[in-house]
Each structure stands twice: as C-alpha cells, then as structure tokens.
C-alpha cells in the first residue's frame, strides 16, 4: 500500500488544483507547470519536489512509491476503471488501490 503521507499529498494536490496541471522535469526535480495544461496522473504527484530522481517518470514513481511497474499499471487501470488485464498479485494490488483512490475522490 502507498504510504499515507504520499496518498495524502496526492489527494491534496490533485483536488486543490482542480486537475488542471502538468509536471515538467527541470533536470533535477519535477515541478508543476502553469494551470490549464493537460492533467497530471495522481501517481506523478508523488514526484513533486523529490530529490535524486532521473526524469524517467515510471522509474521515478517506482523509486518514490517503492512499487513495481505491474503495480503502477494496475493502479492506473483501477483508477480509470479499465477492465482487469492481468492476474499478477502486484497488478491486482495496484488495481484495487487505484479503484479505492478513484472511489474515495468521488466521495470527497
């Protein structure tokens, strides 16, 4: 499960901006770009202000969340309510957490 601190940060930033932001890699950190740009994925929010990242979003999300690529894919599919595609335990855990996040945000 994602740490509560990261989950809280994801909710705060995702909701506070009205989903109208985008991330940019400046060579050292991810930073928010001007409003009214394409939306940012909730997992990308965990990257904002983190040090020692590479600029490769999936690898950086893995490092910050300590989750596998399969978990990240599952989270994304659960978030957008896509049909489950794999039976891998990491994927299913991510899928369930993505659905939980999406449903929790609908109730907020």
What does this structure look like?
With 108 residues, the protein is mainly alpha-helical. It folds into 2 domains: 1-66, no CATH class; 68-108, no CATH class. Helices cover 48% and strands 6% of the residues. It has helices at 4-16, 57-65, 69-79, 89-107; strands at 23-25, 30-32. Strands 1-2 form a two-stranded antiparallel ribbon. α3 (69-79) runs parallel beside α4. It is globular. The chain starts with a helix and ends with a helix.
How are the SSEs placed, and which strands pair?
Layout (H helix, E strand, L loop, with lengths): L3 H13 L6 E3 L4 E3 L24 H9 L3 H11 L9 H19 L1
Antiparallel strand pairs: 1-2
In angstroms, what separates the terminal alpha carbons?
Answer: 20 Å
- What value does the average pLDDT take? 77
Which descriptor suits the 3D outline? Answer: globular
**Count of helical stretches:** 4
Rg, Cα atoms, Å: 13 Å
Uncertain runs are none
What is the total domain count? 2
Label the structural class.
mainly alpha
Order of helices and strands: HEEHHH
What proportion of the residues form beta strands (DSSP E)? 5-15%
Total beta-strand segments: 2
Tell me the helix content: 40-55%
Instruction: Say what oligomer this is.
Output: single chain
Biggest sheet, strands in spatial order?
Answer: 1-2
Largest beta-sheet characterization: 2 strands, antiparallel
């Amino acid at each position: 499960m994602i740490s509560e601190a990261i989950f809280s940060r994801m909710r705060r930033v995702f909701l506070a901006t009205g989903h109208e932001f985008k991330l940019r890699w400046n060579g050292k950190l991810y930073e928010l770009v001007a409003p009214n740009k394409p939306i940012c994925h909730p997992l990308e929010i965990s990257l904002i202000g983190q040090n020692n990242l590479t600029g490769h979003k999936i690898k950086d999300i893995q490092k910050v969340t300590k989750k596998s690529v399969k978990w990240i894919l599952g989270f994304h599919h659960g978030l957008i309510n896509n049909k489950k595609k794999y039976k891998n335990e990491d994927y299913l855990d991510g899928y369930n957490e993505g659905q939980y996040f999406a449903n929790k945000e609908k109730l907020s």
